[in-house]
Amino acid sequence: MNKRARCAVVAAEDANTIAAVIRAYHECLISPILIGDSELIGEMLAEYCCEKNNIRIIHETDHKKACQIAVDLANKQEADCIMKGLVHTKEFMHTILKRENNLRTGNLVSMLSIRELPHYHKLIAFTDAGICMNPTLDEKRQIIENAVKALIAMGYEQPKVGVLASVEVVNPKMQDSVEAAELKRMNQEGIIKDCLIEGPISYDVAINKEAAEIKGFHSPVAGDADLLVFPDLTCANCTTKAITQTCRIPVGSLILGTKVPVILSSRASMTETKYMCIALAAAMKLND
């Protein structure tokens, strides 16, 4: 049984995108569907000694139409994920989220990023650094549920979730700490399932056992978090970009809450970053 994820790549005529796609293809993770300038795509494939006859290519140089082709393939169940190539994020996401395109499931749409931090003992996931600007308490619940569902599809059993705040105790004057404690209560009462939530918890305590011990913070999540939930987009975006640019580490990001995972990486992203994004989407397919 073919377990490769069928990946529709919009505006695939990009060197880093093609390199990442070919690597994932050779590792039997995906069956690519490359949408874009077929002549340029063919030339790029030849550089990797990859016969274009072995890969499905759809010629469409208009980015708006290319985005629509990818969405149509997903709706016809001919694509298991969609990837952004050399196309502007605004144009790409407009097509993805357009109500008439039926890719939305009725759930909140959110972003999940996974990276390998220096000096941390395992991969760690962040949410939401790209979609939800100032999520309400209920939206934070949905953001967590989206992320946990994705992580379980990738093979996690019971992700450890840290709901971040600047303090580890509830302060009525700090709404983030209040909502973090409420999300923990929802988890304890079985409203948010299949994970273990701690909150409020600070970033240092969530990823550093020594910091947790010094502060006298005792929790299975302390120093061992699988997923960190940020209070708002500004906090998440600044933190994740600072880590990525300072440490120069690749990151994989997916849009969740849609019928199929949507791979969203910057047009300037490194090949390794784009490959990680593809691998995440493929992992969800393989464990589906």
Short account of what is shown:
The chain is of the alpha/beta class. It is built from ten helices and eleven strands. Helix content is 41%, strand content 18%.
What do you see in this structure?
The chain has ten helices and eleven strands. It has about 290 residues and is an alpha/beta fold. The protein has two domains: about 5-105 and about 260-285, 3-Layer(aba) Sandwich (Rossmann fold); about 110-245, Isopropylmalate Dehydrogenase. Helix 1 (about 15-25) links the parallel strand 1 (about 5-10) and strand 2 (about 30-35). Helix content is about 40%, strand content about 20%. It starts with a strand and ends with a helix. The longest helix has 17 residues, at about 135-155.
Topology:
Layout: E1 5-10, H1 15-26, E2 30-36, H2 38-47, E3 56-59, H3 63-75, E4 81-84, H4 89-97, E5 110-115, E6 124-127, H5 137-153, E7 160-164, H6 175-188, E8 196-201, H7 203-207, H8 209-215, E9 227-229, H9 233-247, E10 251-256, E11 262-263, H10 271-286
Parallel strand pairs: 1-2, 1-4, 2-3, 4-11, 6-9, 7-8, 7-9
Antiparallel strand pairs: 5-6, 5-10, 10-11
Helix pairs in contact: 1-10, 3-4, 5-10
Q: Which word captures the global form?
A: elongated
- Rg over CA atoms, rounded to whole Å, is 20 Å
- Regions with little confidence, pLDDT below 50 for 5+ residues: none
Q: How many alpha or pi helices?
A: 10
N-to-C series of helices and strands: EHEHEHEHEEHEHEHHEHEEH
Total beta-strand segments: 11
How would you classify the helix and strand content by structural class? alpha/beta
CA distance, first residue to last residue: 14 Å
